[in-house]
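quick one
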Amino acid sequence: MTIHIIHGPNLNLLGNRDHSHYGSLTLDELNDRLLNWARDKGVACHAAQFNSESDIIDALHQATNAAGIVLNPAAYTHTSIAIRDAIDAISAPVVEVHLSHIHARESFRHQSVVAPVCVGQICGFGWLSYALAIDYLVQKNTRHQ
Ligand code: DQA
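structure w/ DQA:
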């Protein structure tokens, strides 16, 4: 059972981005926490970050048979019909996550075009948004919900 974590654009700059929204962890520190979190639950986890829309789409296609995908599409959340269509086309369940509480920020962040084709959305809990998504996917796969 492998869970794929896909980080979208500008998340390679975590640690330098606004700490009040995104916390102070770097991407490497975030991934370390998530890989340890998953390993403690007996699950293999693979994490990757892409700045381009097409690379995210390719990563979604390649993970079609994964037990689950934790996706932070970053700014593409609000605009990318192509990523939405890729999520809709693959077999793996996708959980949309955000570090910040997108609904409590600027109005252009309130809409997610990917949310309707994801199994759910978790936002506002910092790195724990990703950890909670991993927990959901572990439960889903072990309890056959
Ligand atoms: C984000 C929220 C997006 O609105 C923003 O463009 C990001 C990060 C988050 O994790 O809070 O880059 O996805």
